[in-house]
Amino acid sequence: MSALSFSNIQEELEDKLQHAYLKKFIQKPVINNDKLVILYSLIKQTSYSDKKKKNYILTTMLVQIALDTHDLVSERLENESKQLTKNRQLTVLAGDYYSGLYYYMLSKLDDIDMIATLASAIKEINELKMILYYEKNHSMHEFIEEMKALESILIIHVANHVSETSINPFIQNWLLTKKLLREKDLYTSEQHSPLFEVLLNQVMGEYSQYNKPVQAIDAIIRKHLFISEELVQDLPIHFQLLKKDAQRFFAENHNYNSLAMEEG
Asked: What is the pLDDT of residues 90-111, one digit of tens each?
């Protein structure tokens, strides 16, 4: 029986993200706990050694954090301060630093199949980002489906690698729902959310029945929240941690769920 605990994984990941110089100038990277819980649940039930399980989870999360950190790089402004320029350069370096950690840990695993799995996911993610941000002719449905794929590609590749594909539909809808909620929170608190701004522009052309574009996005969130709540019931027994985490969230967001059922 595996002695690997979720709290141990969290602590080790936090430890690997510590870098004294980077901490002075840029915000500490946010660990996506939803993805960490899913990865832990996926990998823990395999027959790998605890050491290999831990390295699989940590390396995959470092890939995610590196990708997320590079997304934080701001556009260069005219006449910007030296400090802002330095912060941008350090954000790029931080993303490269986390990528380097991932490659180092994979090299210790000596696992060609896992390297290929993650490399394929990274390639797909970068290609989809280009489509999502720069392709002008998506329908709203296409845009949401691209967002759904982008949020889940990395985890889906790992799920396929360990032959645990039954939870893929839940992963896709759950991670999309949480992503939309995070981006909405950033936007409504007047923080930087380029993805939500692109989404709002998309909404304005297709959802004229709503007085405010945010209402249309709320309807999309409710739809996928409802789907996620339906799918979570069918998760295999070894996904109890993930199931409890999701059900706690559903209970805390009962109003969203009720509206989703009414809109059905």
From this structure: 555 665 666 667 777 777 777 8
Instruction: Give the DSSP H/E element, type plus range, for residue 37.
Output: helix 33-44
What residue ranges do the domains of the chain occupy?
A: 1-110, 140-264
Q: 73 exposed, middle or buried (CB, 10 Å; 0-12, 13-18, 19+)?
A: middle
Distance of alpha carbon 227 from alpha carbon 174, whole angstroms: 8
135-153 per-residue burial string, b: 16 or more CB within 10 A, e: under 16: eeeeebeebbebbbbbbbb
Question: Measured over all CA atoms, what is the biggest interatomic distance in the chain, rounded to whole angstroms?
Answer: 59
3-class state of residue 206 by DSSP: helix
Euclidean distance between CA atoms 144 and 131, whole angstroms: 12
198-207 pLDDT, tens per residue?
777 766 655 5
Sign of the four-CA dihedral 185, 189, 195, 199: positive
